[in-house]
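Example 661, ligand adenosine-5'-diphosphate.
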Amino acid sequence: MNKIRILSDQLVNQIAAGEVVERPASVAKELVENSIDAGAPQIQIDVELGGRRLLRVTDNGEGMTRDDAMLAFERHATSKLGSVDDLETIATLGFRGEALASIASVARVELVTKREGENIATKVIFEGGRLIDIKDAAHPKGTTIAVKDLFFNVPARRKFLRSEATENYHLTNLVTHYALANPEIAFTLTNNGRETLRVAPAKDLRERAYQLLGSQLIESLLPVDGGLKHVAWARGFVSAPRERRTTRDGQYFFINGRFVRDKIIGRALSESYRSVLPHGVYPVALLFLDIPLQEVDVNVHPQKTEVRFRRADAVRDAVAQAVRNALAGAGYVKEFESNSVFDVGVQEERLVVINEESIPPAPTGGSLQTEQPTQSRIEFGFEVKEDLQKIGAAENAIPNFEAQADVKTSHAETQSDIFQTSPIQLQPERTFEIKPKEEFKPRIEPTPSYFPPLNSATALIKEVPLESLSTNIKPLGQLRESYIVAVDDEGLLIIDQHVAHERILFDKFSRIEATRKAESQRLLIPETFDLTPAQAVAFETVVNELESYGFGLMRLSGRTVAINAVPADLPAGEARNMLAEVLDTVDAEKRGNAKATWRDEIAASLACRAAIKVNMILTQEKMRWLIDVLLLTSSPTTCPHGRPIVLRLTVADIEKGFHRT
Ligand code: ADP
Ligand code: MG
């Protein structure tokens, strides 16, 4: 008997649904994209029970005829793609024609739609991929699709749905994304009948960002408008370094209007901030990339949230350059400094600055124009055609970009020291030099042969096993105002002052019981905090926990929160960043297993924010105190994030190093 069988359509659709329909937010994504493709000026999304029970999208777009309404549920049925050639230059959000078929195979779907000029609307009902009914209905021009009981017929998938709060967080984030990408469209989102987001049509991204993210964030956004023609042009906003996030949730990337999650753009962004933000801290960004359609393949992932660039390095460089120019324009980095792969392999390029005299003063808070100040108009003095050849050349010159990145770290750290210790110097001398080509020095210099190989030092300095830590530790002083250098009976100790204090505070905060309120300090002047729609959802979940740690919080009108009091150990200036951090980790998947509960999450965040920073001078007494209290904690050698706190160079190894053994 034959073993191979052709799968039934129903099964094929369910398999496809596995890729397209990951969670309620992915259903919402497909439906909202369809509404946008249909030219709708207004889109409403209604959610019940985190999208499990109901997810309904209503638009006033072009609608469908009765025949189309039925065809729309067929696999590979699309009105957006005619031929293979179209695939190269696809400009609509959808085109694969599988979303509705996939969704209908794993839920109960009701579609009601009417085109302009038709008398009567059509209602189509599908259940688990089977057509149940088609009938007349009443509906204004446009389409409503209600998806009910998601995964009702695939219990295995239903099990994987997260808590209602997590799913709502994703849904709200998604709608925020699309609302940012389409300022001219009005969006409404309701959650169990309560409105969580409503934005009227806005005239541009700035106004839309104001509607969604609030005025505080807007004030610290710097306009971006730059890139490399024919490769990638980036428009939008990035945040000043004082806005800090510990997740990438505040980063919204769009390629040709399509929301993407892209590592290359994220990396370009981090690269641009390397000298002004520490590792593990992320800026907020709303970046819209215009990339020639034939340069980017959007058809690599069924959800179309991942893309493939024809020339990824060039895109990364273009974005990094645009963002650095934005930072330079506001005085956060000295001048445009290419961090790109071109530095080493290709030295012929020159920066040509147009119109040096007309550089305006750095924008102060509140000034936000998409028109870029002139200083960003730095152009590469070569033709795009050459540019392409150079990309090839550069790739050959440095086959391994990761290795190069490592070499550059020390350079970046030196810069960050400068910025952290002297914040007043943030105003740059606004001079742009045209460097003659001789001055472009390769960053990688040959290692002189008389240095021992680098790894010999790292092998000597080791993490300290808990049992070998004695109470007989004497602090000697500080290294770079960040590390305490001390001695004990066994050798030399290096203690990271920030993580040491973090461990102390974490232990302290973890002991605070949920029932008893922690010490708190009232603020003379309450601070306000604008929640994003997704944060507003998260806020309701954690407000009680936050208060038990000493926060005094009051929800004002709209999505603004007043912070009246903060935990006693927390510097008031850190309150807003800390709130943002906690609210952005509402997504359970992002929380490591070690931090299983909200309370641990808040304790860790609080500890990190309240802890002594690096680059801070400590008195002898303070060092002594830090070491003494550290030794009393539950785990003096590792911080709450699992990193080492203490390193040791043993006497034995020192003697070995001096060839005394
Ligand atoms: P795709 O968007 O990839 O074409 P879908 O399965 O998402 O595939 O949708 C199939 C077709 O149904 C679309 O090509 C479009 O013609 C039609 N359609 C879906 N949603 C809407 C809507 N909200 N308004 C008008 N037409 C729609
Ligand atoms: Mg679609």
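Summary: The chain is about 35% helix and 20% strand.
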